[in-house]
Design goal:
- By secondary structure, the protein is of the alpha+beta class.
- Strands 1-2-5 form a 3-stranded antiparallel β-sheet, covered by helices on one side. A two-stranded antiparallel ribbon has the order 3-4.
- Strand 1 and strand 2 form a beta hairpin.
- The longest helix is centred in the N-terminal third of the chain and has 51 residues.
- The termini are far apart.
Length: 145
């Protein structure tokens, strides 16, 4: 009479198949998370660009915010209020605001991107971005690279 259970071989085959499926799925989830964060960064950079341009139009004399690692915090005090709380770069570990550099009359705001290393270093007074693009995500009123 045969026992109605699974043999060790059958259990090992099932566990192996599950392990293979998990091994295939995990990298796809990481890629989807990076894509979602890139979309979030692009949207937040557009909001920041709008806030910076609003700051410029509503300050007398007209001026962009000074170069600062906390430009979002500085923009929180503007009227009209566009950014209610500091925006955080999701690729920087969850506590760092986006990078911002001003070389009047041009500025650049950027995220380090999925690899977490900034390759953009700023913008010059001709509007040309400094550094290399890499996987950084940026918004600027300059001419680009």
């Amino acid at each position: 009479m045969r026992n109605k259970g699974f043999t060790i071989i059958e259990l090992l085959v099932v566990i192996s198949v599950i392990a293979i499926l998990v091994g295939i799925a995990i990298p796809r989830f990481k890629g989807m998370q990076d894509e979602a964060n890139i979309s979030k960064v692009k949207a937040e950079l557009r909001v920041m660009q709008t806030a910076i341009e609003s700051h410029y139009m509503n300050i007398t004399p007209n001026a962009y915010p000074a170069t600062s690692t906390t430009v979002c915090t500085d923009l929180n005090n503007d009227t009209p209020l566009i950014i209610g709380e500091p925006l955080i770069d999701p690729f920087e570990g969850g506590s760092t605001q986006y990078n911002y550099v001003l070389a009047a009359p041009y500025y650049v705001i950027w995220s380090t991107g999925p690899n977490g290393t900034a390759t953009i270093t700023g913008v010059n007074s001709s509007g040309v971005l400094q550094g290399t693009l890499g996987d950084d995500v940026y918004a600027s009123n300059g001419t680009g690279f």
